[in-house]
Amino acid sequence: MSSTKFILGLFDDPDVLLHGIDELNKKSIPIYDVYTPMPIHGIDDKLGIKPSRLGFAAFMFGILGGTTIFSIVYYTLVHDWPMNIGGKPAFAVPDFIPATFEWTVLFTAFGMTITFFFATHLFPGRAPRVMELRATDDRFVIAIDAKGNVPHEDITNILREAGAVEIKHNDRKYVSYE
Amino acid sequence: MASHHEAIIREPLVTGENITYAKVTDDILKPVENMPNKAWWIGFTVASLGALLWVFAVSWTFWYGIGSWGLNKTVGWAWDITGFVWWVGIGHAGTLISAILLLFRQNWRNSINRSAEAMTIFAVICAASYIVCHMGRPWMAVYSLPLPNQYGSLWVNFNSPLIWDVFAISTYFSVSLLFWYTGLLPDLATIRDRASGIRRRIYSIASFGWTGSVKSWQRFETVCLILAGVSTPLVLSVHTIVSMDFATSLEPGWHTTIFPPYFVAGAIFSGFAMVQTLLLVVRKVLGLENYITMFHIESMNKIILVTGSIVGVAYLTEFFIAYYSGGEYEQYTFLNRFIGPYWWAGCMMYGCNVLMTQLMWFKKIRTNIAVSWVLSIVVNIGMWFERFVIIVISLHRDFIPSSWAMFYPTWIDVSIFIGSIGLFFTMFLLFIRVLPSIAMAEVKLLLKTSSEQAKKKLLAAGNLEPEQAEFYKESLTKFDSVELSEYKK
After folding, report:
1. pLDDT of residue B2 exceeding 60
2. How do the domains of chain B map onto residue ranges?
3. pLDDT exceeds cutoff 90 at B106
4. Tens of pLDDT, residues B458-485
């Protein structure tokens, strides 16, 4: 019984990496995740990852922000303490637009980004779960869960044939812990 | 990534031989992972002395009140609001580069967006400090927020542009900071994974545990795109609202409907000039000539030319409308800019902003680093004078000649201004010391399509229109970072 937990295929080129993903897909070898130093378009399709729904979150937060500040303005200037400014109407909607706009943007930006951090488990002090330290530098890494998978030599061979520059059999999932 | 092919006629965005992904990381992190050089220390010493002067002068203002400034009954806004508008305007270029150029898919933004965004944040900090200072009693700043209080509650007046400004500037600052920091996460993770010991711990906390997995990149790109989408109208709204601080008044010289677009164009104009001022030095001192290339410098100069010309048209329109309106106060205000006691300020404004920028029509000037740098300083000076002219010249002689007055700055006014420049540079120098001054992940995206070596492969492979290949080789002659001898036949 081998003690290998994860098999990592390290590539030095994004196109070769995509080729490697295709090869693994052809052989029906499940891919755990792919780590890249920069966003590579097309991986999410190949791995069957659904498009992000953050846009909807952003839209809802925007509506919330606009409604919130408009309600505050309405309550303060129209309901609670209407002022007589030259006999003009207290409910002066054009004047309320700048503040409404600013808070729409504010809530959209912060609501969406905090949702992103929350969903992706990003927060200050989170222990980095890194499988390969060069994945943030110049290596494009395919991680394959070794447990209950086809013989490890086969995976190694597929990765090598696909053009991986280095193949690692890691006993630990994350190398970033002490 | 089938879309690797870029037309040969586009100039390279990354120059140099053997630029690999690892080399990008090494080159950009050199100032972060090594002790700073002498130039940095000299700059930092001078800048932090300036920042100390700022601390002193601002403390003095808080202690003795704004009576320590040169304001009088007639000129109630002077260097404070001039400085505020100047700094906010400078900030605008960062958001333009990071948001608007992203929406327009201008890939050359990738190498300059990080430092431009940092500049935005520092400039807005300087601007906000002016606002707090000019309140006189800065602890009263809390009353600009719609919080329940014991006077009724007496609420803030949402009909007032000054309150819009509170909302605009605070939103602008916090959203810019968010955008900048979110974009930094992958690069902070790069530093973390190369560091050890205490540095590793610090960057580990700062990088929020970023790993670069597929899902996080996918969400990251969505977030950046939407942040760019909301920042674009935001940045336009900010200077629009700043201009409304003036335009909604009845003061001749302020009371004009052209102010919002005119201020926004001026803001981008001065902001790009400041980016140019900073980056021309940064690329030299940090040795980033391969990433911030002559193409970037020329592109920024073109934007300076366009926005400077828009500002010029706005100036002409203002004069025409003053004449055409038939309002004598309006007409006097604009005449007073040339024949009044502040004629020299008016000449600085029109000369620096309109006449000097027209030099950018010449390619020789746009691609000359020393001249570009000097011109960027000239624009910054001109734009400071623009705000001074609009604010002080309009105020000092408006309706009743018996209340006409002059404004003379005190040493506190001068110290706060010089000090704020020191504060800005202190923050910027600290930034290039501890954070990557170029967005590494985004530059790595360019290597396979837009780099000089990718273009070289295209040339070597042939199959190109000969005229296009010639055109490309011709365009390389302006670059200072390209070895031209290799392109000789």
Report:
1. no
2. 21-455+465-476
3. no
4. 888 878 888 888 888 888 888 888 877 7
- Alpha-carbon gap, residue A27 to A32, rounded angstroms: 15
For B262, B290, B392, B403, B405, the CA distances from B76, given in Å and listed in that order, are: 23, 49, 9, 12, 11
Both tokens of B20, joined, read: 């690999």
Q: Which of residues 436-455 of B touch A (CB under 8 A)?
A: 440-442, 444-445, 448
Q: Do B140 and B192 contact (CB within 8 A), yes or no? A: no
Strands (E), A26-170: 33-35, 140-145, 166-170
| Contact yes or no for B186 and A38 at CB 8 A | yes
Taking CA–CA distances from A133, the nearest residue in chain B reads B193
Q: Is the ipTM of this complex over 0.85?
A: yes
Measure A168 CA to nearest chain B CA, in Å: 18
Is the pLDDT reported for residue B4 higher than 80? no
pLDDT digits (tens, 9 = 90+) for B54-95: 999 999 999 999 999 999 999 999 999 999 999 999 998 888
Structure confidence by residue, pLDDT tens digits, A82-128: 988 889 999 999 999 999 999 999 999 999 999 999 999 999 988 88
Contact A54, A116 (CB under 8 A): yes
Identity of the amino acid at B218? Q
d(CA B180, CA B94): 10
Hey, are the CB atoms on A126 and B179 less than 8 Å from each other? no
- Chain A CB contacts of B441 below 8 Å: 37-39
Fold assignment, B21-455+465-476: Formate dehydrogenase/DMSO reductase fold (1.20.1630)
Query: Is residue A124 exposed (0-12), middle (13-18) or buried (19+ Cβ within 10 Å)?
Result: exposed
* Residue among A15, A108, A122 whose CB faces B230 most closely: A108
Tokens of B101: 């150029």
Interface test with A, best of B147, B182, B222 (most A CBs within 10 A): B222
Of the residues A102, A113, A116, A173, the best mutation for testing chain B's interface (the one with the most B CB atoms within 10 Å of its CB) is A102
All structural domains of chain A: 6-51+129-170 (3.30.70), 54-119 (no CATH)
Show the tokens assigned to A114: 């905090």
By CA distance, what is B225's nearest residue in A? A55
Q: Are A102 and B168 in contact (CB under 8 A)?
A: yes
Tokens 């601002």, residue located: B58
Chain A residue at shortest CA distance from B19? A138
**Do B220 and A116 count as a contact with CB atoms less than 8 A apart?**
yes
